[in-house]
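To close the chapter, one final illustration. This time we ask the reader to focus less on the individual chains and more on the assembly as a whole: which components sit near each other, and how the overall shape emerges from the parts.
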Amino acid sequence: MRKLLTLGVSALALTIGASTANAEGKLSIYHWFEYIPQELLNKFAAENDIEVTMDTFDSNESMLAALKAGKLGSYDVSVPGDYMVKIMAGAGLLDTFEPAELSNFGNISAQWMDVDFDNGRHSSIPYQWGSTSFSVNRDVYSGDIQTTAILFDPPAELRGKINVLDSQGEVLAMASMHLGIPQCTSDRGQLRALNDLLQSAKPHWASFGSDIAKDVLVSGDAAAGMIWNGFSAKARAEGANVEYAFPKQGYVVWMDNVVLLKDAPNRDNALKFMNFLLDPVNAAVVTNYAQYTAGVDGVDGFLDEAVTSAPELNPPAGGAGQFIMACSEEVQTVYDKIWTDLKK
Amino acid sequence: MARKLDIRRFPGFLPITYLCLFLLYAPLIIVMVYSFNDSNSITNWGGLSLRWYAEVFTGVESAKFKAATINSMTIAVMAAITSTTIATLAATAMLKAGRFRGKAISFALINMPLMVPEIVTAVATLIFFSAIGFTSGYLTILLAHIVFCIPFAYLPIAARMQGIEDTYEQAALDLYATRFQAFRLILLPLMTPGIISGFLLSFIISLDDFIITNFVKGAGIETLPTAIFGSVKQGIKPNIMAISTLLLLVSVIFVTLSYLVGRMGQNKK
Amino acid sequence: MAGLIKQSTSNTSTYAGLGPLLMLPSWLVVGFFLVLPVSMMLVYSFLTKEFRGGVIWEFSLAAYDQFFFDRGLFGDAPPVIEWTYITIFWRSIWQAALATVFCLLIGFPTAWFIATRTGPNKSIWLFLITIPYWVNLLIRTISMKFLIRDTGPLNEFLMWTGMISDPIHMINTNFAVQLGLFYSYLPFMVLPIYASVERYNFTFSEAAADLYASRWVTLTKVILPFVKPGIIAGCILVFVPSLGAFLAPDLLGGAKNFMIGSLIEEQFKGNAGNWPFGAAVSMILLSMVLVVLTYYARQQSKVEAR
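The assembled structure is written out below.
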């Protein structure tokens, strides 16, 4: 027992020492767990002689809450999703940079330059992107799946066997696309229709779940389920006969971005890191590891076959993908009410 | 006479105990089986393989998981020891020290960590730590864990202490023992089952905590739960099952050793 | 409750006068690191929400208003009583109560069995109860889900034995939620009861038996009153955390309905980002639990005073 205590105390001493010495040559990252390979961090650390520390979060919203509750100022960069970039910018949590500060800035794919959440890329660079829609077990249902009716007005075979993501943003965005109304509409009639649609669809749903989105499809607990494209590819690789849909009414496109945080203790190193990630070689390493898609030009030659050939990762040309929008406060209040009513 | 031998037994209690153990261990069998899965899946069987064990020890992320496991274990042990100590003193005060000021609200205070929803404790603690300039890291996690472990240690100890008569200690005091000696030599041994229970409960509650840890952690420190819950981008893979199985193995070895030590102690007598 | 606060029989106190000293560590630790932050949350519940998390330092009753009054989808209808959150509270309380009863029914016999073992075996049994909890709750819950799903081992086994011909649907039902809660908190019932049964003096049972009391009478009239502190401690440790639990209800029950835990979680970690409301719901929950516990403690002291 005494040994254990000594061990613990020395571990304590170590960590206190580590957290107080905030000298140059450091970089503090706030990231998702298992979303960047450790080798890449090691490579960056070795190339630039920088000591990299990474903390992790489990959702965009918990990252936002933690930053607002006092963690701002202890990290240099973070990796929020698209709509969260806008929210963070609006809350004054982001710093800006000039394109000239990043020598690889020109590598950013043209289509991801002038995005709605950061027009011209002043605070963020693309990390990985993908889509969210749904997958259907082809053993259970063989009809047309390229429609959002699979979720909101499902065919008899799928009723009561659907899992939807436990995520307000994604569910309400898909529902809006199904109705053909704009996201974050402030029109009362449209909002009522949205509410009615969800109420009428809920009886057909078996469960709400995000962590389990892949496993319910693989295990057969659900015959259809909202899912991220990368997870659907994994489900297929695990032996489930599922097909990922790019419905004609639309689907959600998401993009994770590396942002420069306000009050970054090591701003220069943060920019070095962002520049490092814009190098196609490094971006490809992330893509091969995470199995999503890079937002950088010139990665193709470095990608694994598994990534380039996966149908889930390659949406049809002219697909109707939309980013989730960050609604105004008034609309968000109604959205919250709709969501609470749905789950009360 | 036969009837007197029976007083410890109630019909049905033994089957219920077995049912209880079955319920507790059945899911673990799944965990162990799937740690040997050859596929990436935790739901589909893809053949027998040791690849996830290889990954735990030599894989890309092995260092991260190893560190997370060590952090979880050391934090749980230290938090359990500290909170059990604090709770033992508190229980002695509440049940053995007669009246004193503030006793009435002390019970509510001790149990407060149990009553406040975890996410509220998490956000509030983070705001508080930031406000007083306390850098997030190992120490903040440990402190937060000590706080929420206290009621889990206190309640079993207090339940045990309830009704332990003062007579033995009074006798000891009459024989010129100090109060500290009375505490150490008489009360403490009598309380042991309560203390063990309290320690074990705080240990497992600390080992399992995600929500609070997720907010107060920092400086690159992960615990096993934050690593597991954080795996949303990759999904949970059988490597977690392998780590869990290894932890079970460690705990079984630990228990076997303590059993053997206990038996040796018995034999000496 | 009072059983866990003060001694009922003895009138001498060995450590008289040392109370405050012995309590000091708890006061300091809990007071500084929990009561202080949480009282800040109490303040937050009376402030104006900042959009998407945080507060604006302006007094507001909006959070409590939202809890008790429904003003329609757009917030401009005349207020009527809001049943949504009351329903969520009721659902959580009911689930937690049920889980407590199940834990007690299985936990008491188990604790009794362990406490009546002899020698070092006793602590081995205690470890056996807690070892499964070395595995993370999420993993255990996922495995439980695996076991009980339609094509899972349990159904396959039952069908193999011929007891059933079609799988019993358990996933996403209340039964699954109960099983999950039960599985999450069982040791919290067993260990405190064990700690109190272990002290039980079997001469009481012998005396009862000599007086021709049946087993049942001995159990209810002699043993249960003696181990009551342990049972109460166990019930608190299962009931209160079950109230706020959401992992088992979400994963096994399908998360189709909010529980108190997930409702509060949503306010801090969801799109809602309504901290004052999250704080207000927590304060309502906290005061309810406090009122019940205090009321019970009072009742107990009255009984004991007689």
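Residues 137 and 219 of chain B are 5 Å apart (CA to CA). Chain B touches chain C through 125 residues (CB under 8 Å). With these observations in hand, you are ready for the problems at the end of the chapter.
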